[in-house]
Specification:
single chain; about 170 residues; alpha+beta; four-stranded antiparallel sheet; about 55% helix; globular
C-alpha cells in the first residue's frame, strides 16, 4: 500500500468534523443562553418533540451518569482515543472514499463536541427530547446525532463493501 499525501487521504474530510463541532457547540451555547434548565422550562415543538435543557454527567443515554465523577475523565480519554484512531484511519483512506471518511469525520466532530462540554462544564449539554405518549427517549444533542449517523454509515459501508466483494468474486 502506497502512502497517501494529506491531500489524497481522508484527512481532507476533517472540515466536516469541524462543521459538526461548531454546529454542536453553537447549538449548546444557544440552549444554555436562551433556555431555562429542566423539565418545567421545556419548549414543546411537535406532539413528539420538545427542546429540553438538561445536563448529562454520563455518556450515551445517560450511561454512568450517577457515578461519582470518574466517568468524566474516562469518557474524555475515550473521546480522544477514538478521535485519534479515526484520524489515523482517515490518513490511510483515500479521500475518494466519501462514505467512510464522512462517517469518521462525523464521529470525530461529535466526540470532540461532547469532550468540549465535559472539559469546560463537567457535563454534556443535551436538549433534544423525543417521546411517544409519556415515554421519553433520553435527551441528546447534535454531537450524539452525528456520532449515530457516522456509526450507521460505517455499518452501511461494511454491508456495501461485503456485497461488492461478493460481486467481484463472481
Amino acid at each position: 500500500m502506497t502512502d497517501l499525501t494529506v491531500k489524497q487521504s481522508g484527512l481532507r474530510w476533517l472540515w466536516l468534523a469541524l462543521l459538526v463541532f461548531v454546529a454542536d457547540i453553537g447549538s449548546k451555547l444557544l440552549v444554555m443562553d436562551t433556555m431555562g434548565y429542566g423539565w418545567a422550562n421545556r419548549i414543546e415543538i411537535l406532539p413528539f418533540f420538545n427542546l429540553l435543557y438538561v445536563h448529562n454527567y454520563g455518556a450515551a443515554f445517560s450511561f454512568l451518569s450517577d457515578a461519582s465523577g470518574w466517568q468524566r475523565w474516562f469518557f474524555s480519554i475515550i473521546a480522544l482515543g477514538v478521535s485519534g484512531l479515526l484520524a489515523y484511519w482517515m490518513r490511510k483512506t483515500p479521500a475518494a472514499e466519501i462514505r467512510v471518511n464522512a462517517a469518521y469525520a462525523m464521529i470525530i466532530g461529535g466526540a470532540l463536541g461532547n469532550l468540549f462540554d465535559r472539559l469546560v462544564h463537567g457535563f454534556v449539554v443535551d436538549f433534544l427530547d423525543f417521546y411517544i405518549g409519556d415515554k421519553h427517549w433520553p435527551a441528546f444533542n447534535l454531537a450524539d446525532t452525528a456520532i449515530c449517523i457516522g456509526a450507521a454509515l460505517i455499518i452501511l459501508d461494511g454491508f456495501l463493501q461485503d456485497k461488492n466483494s461478493k460481486t467481484a468474486k463472481n
